[in-house]
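Anyone up for a design puzzle?
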């Protein structure tokens, strides 16, 4: 049956899909119809039999559709087919719509049935106009109908909330593009969530061919690693500069669950070539970011130029600020100093401009993008947006059209689940930070990673540390045993998750510090989350000395009766280099560019 033309899909009325939840006191959309006499999620509910088509003007009311169809719509057989849930079986066929007995019967109907009874009454007395003038299904409050927008980088569309009707749900589902990246992670998980958000420079779409490289295959032009904490109290968005020189690992292009092609990796190339170049897809950017940061990614979302234009328009414009006039002929941005509300082409020009701000580099453009996305998050989570069902439905339509995602969130239902999980993050606890880089001495047009500052930043994300500055520094416990001389230290070292070659590097470091014996045993049988030093009870003094030499906390030390006179050190994923403290710092290193999403005073220089 035509779901759009008749308001049904598979003989299911969209109104029947709204189920009352006694736990919340509101109606919720239930997409999978419940069979007759079966138990619904929230208790017993019967699905009515398929309804007879109303008689249209000019048709005979006695045209038989099936045995017994000669009775009038208000008659006994028609009532039984339509109600099945407690209507009075003794209602007289002769009762007129609006009569006392009809009103008494109608008052006993559930709210949705009363709406249908009123619809039939309107059709019978000639005022309702039949099927074409059906009474609208039960109206929900603005918040119940709204598509609540999640607390993530909603600028690239974390769509959430209750979808108004089956047809709309199907429409949004059809909007979403999916890419098989070899991962199918659940939409919702208990631990921290890491989402890779990619904005491409593809010029496809109306009005985009005039921007610079119109033949671009779509590189990773704007990339954020969006980390949401395990307790959903804070989030960090790491901006990755597109012109940063890095290594791109081998990646596989997949189709229908099978590997179609393997693309060789490259060393020492621009980060943005992890997408588009050599046919690389978002899965290649995914692998590149994991290799760069050491953070395991759960999902990706990718959008193009149209996402910025259409999403900014759908929310009614995004407020931005400039401290000086900006006139950039390449991005087509022309703004006076002060605050402005931008949308559409002007919004796209704002996030693309760089030549008229700061030093004219991509790093200055990142600051504009962070300001824009922070403001858009505030706008989307504002009462003005959340209380407008029509605005949110338009926004969800635009967002899903703009999105390409992984299989794990490749449906509206999954996106809704993810967004509802992440929306608990308060805007004031969302931090945008830029991966630290320095000028590339071999190429002034590119930059290279500042490892000294980047590694502690990556470690904060790896270990779920907040960047809001509210974490209290806790001193690491020290081993209590008296330290033996360094010459008494005898240890074998395995690499169980540290950097490549870390076991050998650590052995050399200890020997140079005066250790009696330190030998690398290569890679451990399995990786460890945290570094561990095992020792015999008689070796507490030597273990205390080794912990002091490597700055290991007391929590890394473990007594073992099976080691005899030696000690075994296994380097975990928390290990970066010998002599450097384990664990993440309590705050970002000084000099790291960052901005709070709730800071309304940010203004482009």
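Challenge accepted. My sequence:
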């Amino acid at each position: 049956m035509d779901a759009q033309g008749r308001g049904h899909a598979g003989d299911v009325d969209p109104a029947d899909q709204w189920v009352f939840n006694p736990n919340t006191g509101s109606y919720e959309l239930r997409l999978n119809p419940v069979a007759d006499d079966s138990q619904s999620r929230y208790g017993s509910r019967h699905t009515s039999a398929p309804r007879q088509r109303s008689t249209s003007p000019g048709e005979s009311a006695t045209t038989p559709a099936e045995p017994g169809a000669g009775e009038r719509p208000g008659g006994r057989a028609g009532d039984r087919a339509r109600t099945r849930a407690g209507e009075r079986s003794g209602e007289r066929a002769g009762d007129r719509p609006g009569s006392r007995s009809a009103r008494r019967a109608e008052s006993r109907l559930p709210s949705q049935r009363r709406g249908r009874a009123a619809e039939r009454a309107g059709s019978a007395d000639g005022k309702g106009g039949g099927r074409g003038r059906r009474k609208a299904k039960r109206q929900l409050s603005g918040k119940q109908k709204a598509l609540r927008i999640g607390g993530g980088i909603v600028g690239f569309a974390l769509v959430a909330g209750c979808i108004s009707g089956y047809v709309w749900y199907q429409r949004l589902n059809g909007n979403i593009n999916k890419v098989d990246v070899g991962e199918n992670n659940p939409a919702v998980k208990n631990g921290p969530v890491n989402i890779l958000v990619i904005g491409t420079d593809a010029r496809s779409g109306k009005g985009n061919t005039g921007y610079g490289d119109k033949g671009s295959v779509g590189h990773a032009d704007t990339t954020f690693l969006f980390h949401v904490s395990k307790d959903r109290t804070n989030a960090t968005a790491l901006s990755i500069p597109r012109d940063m020189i890095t290594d791109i690992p081998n990646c596989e292009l997949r189709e229908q669950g099978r590997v179609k092609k393997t693309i060789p990796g490259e060393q020492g190339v621009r980060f943005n070539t992890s997408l588009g170049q050599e046919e690389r897809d978002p899965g290649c950017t995914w692998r590149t970011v994991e290799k760069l940061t050491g953070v395991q990614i759960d999902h990706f979302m990718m959008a193009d130029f149209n996402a910025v234009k259409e999403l900014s328009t759908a929310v009614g414009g995004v407020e931005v600020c400039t401290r000086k006039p900006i006139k950039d002929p390449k991005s087509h941005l022309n703004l006076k100093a002060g605050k402005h509300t931008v949308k559409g082409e002007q919004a796209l020009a704002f996030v693309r401009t760089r030549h008229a701000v700061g030093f004219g580099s991509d790093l200055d453009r990142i600051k504009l993008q962070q300001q824009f996305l922070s403001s858009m998050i505030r706008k989307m989570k504002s009462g003005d947006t959340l209380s407008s069902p029509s605005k949110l439905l338009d926004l969800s339509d635009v967002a899903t059209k703009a999105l390409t995602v992984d299989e794990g969130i490749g449906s509206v239902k999954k996106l809704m689940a993810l967004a509802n999980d992440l929306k608990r993050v308060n805007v004031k606890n969302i931090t945008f930070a830029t991966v630290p880089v320095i000028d590339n001495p071999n190429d002034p047009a590119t930059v290279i990673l500042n490892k000294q500052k980047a590694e502690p930043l990556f470690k904060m994300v790896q270990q779920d540390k907040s960047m809001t500055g509210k974490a209290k520094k806790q001193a690491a416990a020290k081993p209590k045993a008296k330290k033996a001389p360094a010459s008494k230290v005898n240890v074998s070292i395995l690499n169980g998750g540290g950097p490549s070659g870390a076991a050998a590097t650590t052995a050399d470091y200890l020997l140079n510090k005066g250790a009696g014996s330190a030998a690398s045993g290569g890679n451990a049988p399995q990786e460890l989350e945290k570094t561990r030093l095992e020792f015999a009870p008689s070796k507490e003094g030597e273990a205390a000395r080794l912990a002091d030499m490597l700055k290991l906390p007391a929590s890394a030390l473990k007594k073992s009766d099976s080691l005899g006179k030696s000690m075994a050190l296994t380097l975990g994923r928390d290990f970066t280099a010998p002599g450097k403290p384990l664990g993440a710092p309590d705050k970002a290193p000084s000099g790291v560019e960052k901005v709070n999403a709730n800071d309304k005073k940010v203004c482009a220089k």
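A detail worth pointing out: The two ends are 59 Å apart (CA to CA).
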